[in-house]
Write a structure and sequence with these properties.
There is one protein chain. The protein is an alpha/beta fold. It has 2 domains: 187 residues, 3-Layer(aba) Sandwich (Rossmann fold), CATH 3.40.50; 237 residues, Rossmann fold, CATH 3.40.50.720. Helices cover 42% and strands 14% of the residues. The longest helix is centred in the middle third of the chain and has 32 residues. It is globular, with a radius of gyration of 23 Å. The two termini are 37 Å apart. Bound molecules: nicotinamide-adenine-dinucleotide. Nicotinamide-adenine-dinucleotide (NAD) binds next to helix 1 and helix 4. Nicotinamide-adenine-dinucleotide binds next to helix 1 and helix 4.
Length: 444
């Protein structure tokens, strides 16, 4: 993470408003305040703003609360009052773009945010769309803001939940989409805001609105394709007796392929990949094109949970009344976010079969959210050992490498049945087999 103080170059110390204090907006306002800008985090959710003003983060990310506490009330303020935008040189829009029932991105929050800021924009302000939006959205927002003498810039976000603060300060690239007639003031503002990244030689892609919008969807969908591709190979591994771990190791050493995103498992979840893949497929359809590869990635991904669940059922026979120990509830490690979590999908399937489910996650916020979501239908546990007590099966649902370092000897003593379904291929099979566990991974 960036430590110390940065000198902001350029003519002025800007005031920046960030609309939305969710995973993207909060990291953006907190990150920019650490870089020395004067920031306002604005949200329509009064409870979030109340919490933030008390120095508490509504979401959990490593290092987030520490920076929040340091800048809160000083050069970082939170409010529901859009009026503060009158003072601001730049306004980042970071509201949600969830999936509509037809698979397209729902832009109602984007348009409402644009309408919300419109009355307060000062001359030459720059409105930056950070949310993930389909091609054409920056143009639509620009239409809404006609007559405001402001500029709209596309600046998609690439942070990963679980490492969001580090990603903010060490992003791989900054993408900026301008219009041909974007005023030089707006270009200067953007370079001023991103001067820290420019100086540390981060790669910049300066392009048009449409390309910037598409870079985000193409990136997420490419990663989704990579995951689904590996999961497809894993199915063949299961049938022919190959080990997907060795197959992907051999693939990943090829620098053209790369080692990342080659883990077979329960597939992708979370608030971004599923909706972004679908929204991109819809953008093809709207343009009378067919996204064959991208659509298949989604199809493969959807089948993974059912396949995994069927394998568990085959082994357990009737899960009714059986004790299930679920290791991991969030959609990925080091986050409290349960949106589109594969673990939650599994829990719901198990509850439908009247199984008793106990869960554990290393992030307390994830367990708190699970409790809020599922109430007393599940048992929330503070340790893996507590979760494993009298378990008939242990299921690993979130990709925490720490599960491998747990005391599997002690866990073996607590369970009813020494049976593991590792949905993330995280465990060293030999290690658990040594303690008498029967082990089932994915493609192993
Ligand atoms: N979460 C991620 O990892 C991630 C990464 C990259 C990009 N994105 C994209 O960033 C966008 C935001 O995602 P998120 O996960 O931060 O969403 P989120 O749901 O966590 O946060 C959205 C926030 O916007 C607020 N909001 C909605 N309408 C508003 C309005 N009119 N005025 C002010 N505030 C308003 C909501 O109350 C909420 O706090 C989405 O387009 C998403 O696809 C997300």
């Amino acid at each position: 993470m960036f430590e110390g103080k940065i000198k902001i170059k350029g003519a002025f110390r800007m005031k920046i408003a960030v609309i939305g204090t969710g995973y993207v907006g909060l990291i953006q306002s907190v990150g920019l305040s650490k870089l020395g800008f004067d920031c306002f985090g604005i949200d329509i959710d009064e409870n979030k703003i109340k919490m933030l003003n008390a120095g508490k983060s509504p979401i959990w990310e490593d290092k987030l609360e520490e920076i929040l506490k340091k800048h809160n009330g000083k050069n970082l303020k939170f409010t529901t009052n859009f009026g503060v935008i009158e003072e601001c040189d730049a306004v980042f829009i970071c509201v949600g773009t969830p999936q509509s029932s037809d698979g397209t991105a729902d832009l109602k929050y984007i348009f409402a945010a644009a309408e919300g800021v419109k009355p307060y924009l000062k001359k030459n302000a720059v409105v930056v769309i950070k949310s993930t939006v389909p091609v054409g959205t920056n143009r639509k927002v620009s239409k809404i803001l006609e007559g405001c003498n402001c500029d709209v810039v596309s600046n998609p976000e690439f942070l990963k939940e679980g490492s969001a603060i580090d990603d903010f300060f060490n992003t791989d690239r900054v993408v900026l989409g301008f219009e041909d007639n974007t005023k030089h003031e707006a270009r200067d503002s953007m370079m001023n805001i991103y001067s820290y990244f420019y100086e540390k030689k981060t790669k910049f892609v300066i392009t048009d609105w449409e390309s910037a919008e598409l870079i985000k969807y193409a990136s997420n969908s490419f990663l989704a394709v990579k995951i689904s591709f590996v999961n497809e190979i894993a199915r063949l591994c299961d049938t022919v007796g190959a080990d997907i771990k060795d197959v992907t190791k051999g693939m990943g050493y090829d620098r053209r392929i790369g080692e990342h995103f080659l883990n077979a498992g329960l597939g992708y979840g979370g608030s971004c990949f599923p909706k972004d893949v679908n929204a991109l497929v819809k953008q093809f359809e709207e343009n009378k094109l067919e996204a064959k590869i991208i659509a298949s990635a989604d199809e493969v991904n959807l089948g993974l949970i059912d396949n995994f669940f069927d394998r568990i059922l085959k082994k357990l026979k009737n899960p009714e009344g059986k004790n299930i120990a679920l290791f991991g509830v969030a959609f990925k490690p080091n986050t409290d976010d349960l949106r589109e979590s594969r673990a939650v999908e599994l829990i719901n399937k198990l509850l439908k079969k009247k199984a008793n489910v106990s869960c554990f996650d290393y992030v307390d916020g994830a367990l708190k959210n699970a409790e809020e979501l599922l109430g007393n239908k599940i048992k929330i546990c503070k340790t893996v050992k507590e979760t494993a007590k009298e378990a008939d099966v242990i299921i690993i649902a979130t990709e925490y490498s720490q599960f491998n370092d747990e005391d599997w000897g002690a866990i073996a003593e607590r369970v009813n049945t020494k049976l593991i379904f590792d949905g993330r291929n995280i465990l060293d099979k030999n290690k658990v087999v040594k303690y008498g566990f029967e082990y089932f991974g994915i493609g192993r």
